[in-house]
DNA sequence: CAACTTAAAACGAACGTTCCTTCTTGACAA
DNA sequence: TTGTCAAGAAGGAACGTTCGTTTTAAGTTG
């Protein structure tokens, strides 16, 4: 096989990445051997090492892809106009996240949430990945903070709390729910949306310093 | 050294566990070699293998400890009487979680949140740990569900949403914030408490089927 | 035929673990 | 109180295995 088409090269690369993602979702990055990946991809070592310089590059490629998908989901949700209320915003980013690579399953459950958790676990080890994640996180935080500011300026949300704190809280809700999916299997997005909606109906303590009756 | 006191044996065991926890928080379970642990514990292989049958047992011991601490934090928060409102409930469990093993730091930041994420990443690989986690999660979910029911019955929260959904949402918020700490370093608990408090001030969509003005 | 992909065997390094030795300790006899 | 001894904890080199990777040869296509 010589001078194959670019499409073929791309397909091979994707085939390897998909096989690796499956193995990684099953066993984690470092408990997965290259030979596991080779077997899953039904390819030989020579073939795989033509596309990736080694295991670390394979891990980095998948982590980047996963983090990129998550960030894209957050960004897309933030671009909705007009900005939906918090419960819908959170639900839409979660739905979009869980829709990525839906066909890639391990034991019948989606592999993607597990890959997200695996990616998190890899961050402390890799400064470059950490920088990418940090950049994406900061950007999402800022975008969501602006949306929260909108809530507050339009009077839909009390204004005595830093928008950034609310943004971080909403992000925590989404990522926490992704973790739940990774650990306990899939669940409808409605759970988080409704749960948030219920919380939104609870009367909170008044702002500190406010006049008491 | 022969027939040393039980206290000494316990101290050695803890010394090994602490060293391993530090290494694991730094590099993850499987990228940490036994020799890394030996060096960190300042002990020889013979010593460590007298207390643990192997690396897997070391990992299992630490994961169990970490999950146990997290579960204890959730349980303690749920035992508060009378049950605090959601923002305070969430803040108290988070505070309690982050207070565990506070002195165990890597690069100056607490190791515990990282260990939590590492534990999550290990779950798909180990059915026994998964069962332990599942049991703890279900129990916390049920306990928090009962609290939410209390909110609803006392009229502090709209009652048209399943208590379990709210419980899962609050758990997601806490775990998501733990993940943030693991990835981006420590942050005050107040962020999550205030963020939740702000969300609680947002008027939500009325229940489906409710009469429209 | 030329160019290049794939297969497969094999390599060195690093891993987890074991094994044997050395050293320490507490118990006990004198 | 002191000296001796057995028990067993710790040390550390060495083992076999497995890993990621490289190399070499065969195969395939334009």
UniProtKB/TrEMBL annotation, chains A, B:
Organism (species): Streptomyces phaeoluteigriseus
Presence of the UniProt keyword Transcription regulation in the record: yes
Keyword Aminoacyl-tRNA synthetase: no
Domain HTH tetR-type: 10-70
InterPro entries: BetI_C, DNA-bd_HTH_TetR-type_CS, Homeodomain-like_sf, HTH-type_TetR-like_transc_reg, HTH_TetR, Tet_transcr_reg_TetR-rel_C_sf
Top-level taxon of the source organism: Bacteria
Protein name: TetR family transcriptional regulator
Molecular-function GO term, any one: DNA-binding transcription factor activity
Keywords on record: DNA-binding, Repressor, Transcription, Transcription regulation
DNA-binding region range list: 33-52
SUPFAM superfamilies tied to this protein: Homeodomain-like, Tetracyclin repressor-like, C-terminal domain
């Amino acid at each position: 096989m010589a001078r194959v088409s670019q499409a073929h090269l791309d397909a091979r690369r994707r085939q390897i990445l998909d096989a690796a993602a499956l193995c990684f979702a099953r066993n984690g990055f470092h408990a997965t051997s290259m030979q596991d990946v080779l077997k899953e991809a039904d390819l030989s070592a020579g073939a795989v090492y033509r596309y990736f310089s080694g295991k670390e590059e394979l891990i980095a490629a998948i982590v980047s892809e996963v983090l990129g998908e998550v960030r894209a989901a957050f960004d897309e949700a933030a671009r909705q106009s007009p900005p939906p209320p918090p419960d819908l915003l959170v639900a839409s980013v979660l739905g979009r996240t869980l829709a990525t690579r839906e066909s890639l399953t391990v034991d019948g459950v989606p592999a993607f949430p597990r890959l997200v958790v695996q990616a998190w676990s890899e961050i402390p080890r890799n400064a470059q990945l950490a920088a990418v994640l940090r950049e994406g996180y900061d950007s999402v935080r800022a975008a969501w903070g602006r949306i929260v500011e909108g809530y507050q300026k339009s009077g839909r949300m009390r204004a005595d709390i830093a928008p950034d704190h609310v943004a971080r809280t909403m992000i925590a809700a989404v990522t926490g729910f992704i973790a739940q999916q990774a650990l306990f299997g899939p669940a409808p997005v409605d759970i988080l949306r409704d749960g948030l909606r219920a919380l939104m109906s609870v009367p909170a303590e008044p702002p500190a310093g406010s006049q008491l009756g």
